[in-house]
Specification:
Largest sheet: 6 strands, mixed
Low-confidence stretches: none
Radius of gyration: 19 Å
Number of helices: 10
Number of domains: 1
CATH architecture: 3-Layer(aba) Sandwich
CATH topology: Rossmann fold
CATH superfamily: P-loop containing nucleotide triphosphate hydrolases
Number of strands: 10
Order of helices and strands: EEEHEEHEHHHHEHEHEEHH
Shape: globular
Length: 252
């Protein structure tokens, strides 16, 4: 359903992607791991089309979105839902307005109908009775759930997760992992998550790919990644300071 072919992207002299290749099958849950600054967010922005590659292709169902017109890209993005790293809720809007934002803006629904859909999606992520609260009244975990409810509000085919467990305590992080699995099963979506949280990666992934120095250096099932002989992947998943991955500003 999603295929990245020889993707290159630079910002000035900073070459972030250097020939990244990745294929995500329909209905699959793919997790991309990698260190801070490795280009994971740049990769996911190419998938949804908010960034265009310097070279290479981003195929959605075989169609290169990098070559689409703005109108074509606008229509394609309707197939996506995205949970942002810090939930990215609008502080001045009530919870239900946040969830229904795209529905009212693009679907032109009446307020009553939009609120009903928002309430339904909030129930799906385990939140009830919060529709009229403001984001400032929510805990970090609740904000993530609201962000997920917004991501699924228009019944997308593809869900993207940007560091879904960042900033959460271990118990709440695991609850978000369970929700991600639940959404896949209930909605039959294809999903791509980026994270450096290996507990989360192992739990939610059908396959895991590692991004390092602008390329996908390994991909496999969680068990294959756990048992890999790749020194780069092994250092990352074990969290060791010793190995081929150099720590910026630290000399041996």
């Amino acid at each position: 359903m999603i295929e990245l072919i020889d993707l290159h992207k630079s910002f000035g002299r900073n070459q972030v992607l250097r020939g990244a290749n990745l294929k995500v099958e329909k209905g699959e849950s793919m997790v991309v791991i990698g260190g801070s600054g490795s280009g994971k967010s740049v990769l996911i922005k190419h998938i949804i089309g908010t960034l265009k590659p310097d070279s290479g292709s981003v195929l959605i169902d075989g169609v290169d979105i990098a070559k689409m017109s703005e109108n074509e890209l606008y229509e394609t993005r309707k197939r996506f839902g995205m949970l942002f790293q810090m939930a990215a809720l609008f502080d001045s809007m009530k919870v239900w307005e946040n969830v229904a934002f795209a529905l009212m803006r693009h679907g032109k629904l009446k307020e009553k109908d939009a609120k009903e859909i928002a309430s339904e999606k909030l129930r799906m992520v385990g939140l009830m009775g919060v529709e009229d609260l403001m984001p400032s009244e929510l805990s970090g975990g609740m904000k993530k759930r609201v962000g997920l409810a917004r991501a699924i509000a228009h019944s997308p085919e593809i869900l993207l997760y940007d560091e879904p467990t960042t900033g959460l305590d271990p118990i709440m992080a695991d609850a978000i992992n369970d929700l991600i699995i639940d959404m896949k099963q209930k909605l039959s979506v294809t999903s791509v998550a980026i994270t450096h949280d290996m507990h989360s990666a192992y739990k939610i992934a059908d396959r895991i790919a590692m991004l390092y120095e602008g390329r996908i250096v390994a991909a496999g099932t969680p068990d294959e990644i756990k048992n890999t002989d790749n020194a780069i992947v092994r250092q990352f998943i074990t969290g060791s300071a010793v190995g081929p991955i150099k720590i910026e500003g630290v000399t041996a």
